[in-house]
Amino acid sequence: MGFGSGGGADLMRKFLDEAGGFAVIDGGLATELEAHGADLKDQLWSAKYLFTSPDLIKKVHLDYLEAGASILITASYQGTIQGFQSRGFSPAESEALLRRSVEIACEARDIFQGQYLKSGSGFSEGAINLKQRPVLVAASIGSYGAYLADGSEYSGNYGQEITVETLKDFHRRRLQVLSEAGADIIAFETIPNKLEAQTYVELLLECDTKIPAWFSFTSKDGINVVSGDSMAECVSLADSCNKVVAIGINCTAPRFIHSLILSIKKETLKPILVYPNSGGEGYDPVRKDWVLSGASDDDFVSYVSKWHEAGASLIGGCCRTTPNTIRAIAKALCKGFDAGKGEAEQPIEVEKNSVEDTLTLNSTSFHNSSSNTSACSRPLLV
Ligand SMILES: [Zn+2]
Prior knowledge:
Number of domains: 1
Bound molecules: zinc ion
CATH class: Alpha Beta
CATH architecture: Alpha-Beta Barrel
């Protein structure tokens, strides 16, 4: 399908319109893998499970779909061709592992949607009853600092010797492989500095990727990105690229998110996404684990309505969030939608047969069904 010039932001907006104005991103993959007994103290982090236990990754994806997520982020965040090769995989095998990360997420989506279409009802007790929503697969690309596995994605300090050209050489092939693996969108996550944002913008244009991308930055002060570079400049850079369809923040403490949404909104009209970590914790690159660094943050979910009102339309969770977090986010957003619906003069309606005409993201993301059993009365695909 075509990804027309200048139309990227419109495509995500149309997806959001079809989904009722908001969508829930999944939660922490590594956190949930650990909950199932995974040992992630490894240079490859969660990407290790692409070759040791792909079925466990698929189970976690399914957990998040049941919890109400509409966007699955693949297990490729810390999976790089260079990293896999350092573990003895050939270049071809390394690329196959990246493709596998997308396939696993697509398989989870197919299982989820197939079971719903077959049964017409929910799965397990407690599953969010939002089965008819479209589901997107976002192919994760972690920052160069994530590959280094030294915590530098949380400082943005790559040293003087690292340039845009260095980073392009590092990221180019992975972007090409993931953009042709069947995902709907590329998720550039945990971007710590302007240098890497510039790299991604240039690569998207040079590689002429056929799927759009989102840019997600990190902050540790609610003002700038973690390197100290201007958030406004980083967002403006992302906004200038017509292949970028959403811009936002991930792996940042919840208490900083509201002010960041307001500053992002000044620089772009594109949809804003936020998927914070659980807050109150810090990442120890030596232990390769999260450690408590003081009082836990306020209740994560209590912020959700405020973020949505401020302008974020894609909301989920990053490190230390779980399916329970995502379930609570979905419920909070649905509650807000239902509350606002009564004030609207005209209910939002979804035209039948409009999906293929208006969405140019992969058609496999969407399925057709004639019944609406959602607990949330927001419009769903019909
Ligand atoms: Zn995170």
